[in-house]
Amino acid sequence: MAAHGLPWLHPWPDAVHVTVPKSQYRSGSASLKLHTRPFGPDDVVDHAGVRFTSVARTVADVALLGDLRTAVVVADAALRRGVPRQRLVRAVGGTSHDRGRATASLVLDLADGRSGSPAESLARVVFRELGLPAPVLQQAFVVEGHRYDVDFWFPEQGVIVEVDGRAKYTQDRYRNGRSATEVFIDEKRRHERLLTVPGVRWIIRLEWRDLWDLDQLARRLRAAGLPCTVRPVRSARGVTV
């Protein structure tokens, strides 16, 4: 994961996870977790003399662990960087691991490289958990000659959902030479222009931490007219970014 620069949803674990053939299995330890799964030559890459599972195989192994949220975040990132979807499908199909297979198949169905960040990937899974209809990703609106691509568009309800973070205002790579004040003004102007688009009736802005408090999130989404048909079952976590 870290070697490939793929995102991880939780704090990095203390233990190193290694995939080995059954013939090389030995007892693990608190700092070394071994997984015995078959792999072929395409599943292994070499970097500076160290062998790693390929990006596609890494996605498959994460998906087989059964954590849908984390696996979609990782799979989306792989697709964003240009890994063909069929390669992910082959990587999952090349394992004989029955436990976690259903989750891995669902990850392949949900994975979408159009999600622009781990937060957007997580949001899609959370929306699904809450029973929302599938949104349109990266919908483009043109207003007064300006094009605005929004993270999520729910056309039947006329609701736009944007997943932002403080990084947009504090990190140079997002500010494009603008001050934090200028970014704020530009975002306010963007918000006002989008509300002039016929059919757009509500804009919700979410931060990373909002995606972990599902009760509060469901209330906000319902207030905007979005049908949250599933009662939240996962409790909020003390995650800050």
Topology:
Layout (H helix, E strand, L loop, with lengths): L15 E5 L11 E5 L7 E4 L2 E4 L1 H10 L3 H13 L4 H9 L7 H10 L7 H12 L6 E8 L2 E9 L4 E5 L3 H4 L1 H4 L4 H15 L7 E5 L7 H10 L18
Parallel strand pairs: 1-2, 7-8
Antiparallel strand pairs: 3-4, 5-6, 6-7
Commentary on this structure:
By secondary structure, this protein is of the alpha/beta class. Helices cover 36% and strands 19% of the residues. The protein is built from nine helices and eight strands. The chain has a four-stranded mixed beta sheet with strand order 5-6-7-8. A hairpin with a 2-residue loop joins strand 3 and strand 4. Helix 1 runs antiparallel to helix 2 and helix 1 packs across helix 3. The longest helix is centred in the C-terminal third of the chain and has 15 residues. It is elongated. It starts with 15 loop residues before the first strand and ends in an 18-residue tail after the last helix. 26% of the residues are buried.
